[in-house]
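User: quick one - fold this with FE2/S2 (inorganic) cluster bound?
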Amino acid sequence: MSEDHRSVRPPRRTSHEGESSLEESRRFAPETSRRDFLGLAAAWAAVAAVAAAAIGSLRLPMPSVFPESNSQVKLGPPGGFKPDSATYLPELSAWVFRDEQGLYAISSVCTHLGCIAGREPDGRFKCPCHGSIFEADGKVVGGPAPKGLNWLAMSLSPDGQLVVDKVRTVKSGTRFTA
Ligand code: FES
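Assistant: Sure. Structure tokens for the protein plus FE2/S2 (inorganic) cluster:
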């Protein structure tokens, strides 16, 4: 009887065997590996966020559209604009005038919130959105608009066409002679 009891006793382990089984149980413990995975995922998410922010900040100073290249519109030969004429150009949202001093272009984009001001029979401009009123030379005389309508820069292209720049402004009253 006592011999049987001795035979079922588990064999004694050396101290080395005990360490290896402890290592294995640590390696396969599910909570530790999940924690590691979540930690790694969080670290990679943080790295990705910093990289995206860095790339975004590099793009900030650069406009997506280069206004200088797209803003100039050719209008044909300057002689096409007759003396004392007023011509509306929808592609510019602007009027081109010729008087005895020369050519000039006034933007009809309201300086309040950007609606298109209409030109009245008396030559003044009136904004349909909030009622700003501008003189024939673009000076603001009523409504919420903070300043007058913009006068746009004009030039002559190498092939002799009149060019108006939608984004470059000149001082009110400036004439272009061509
Ligand atoms: S947008 Fe012209 S008055 Fe407001």
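One thing worth noting: The chain has four helices and ten strands.
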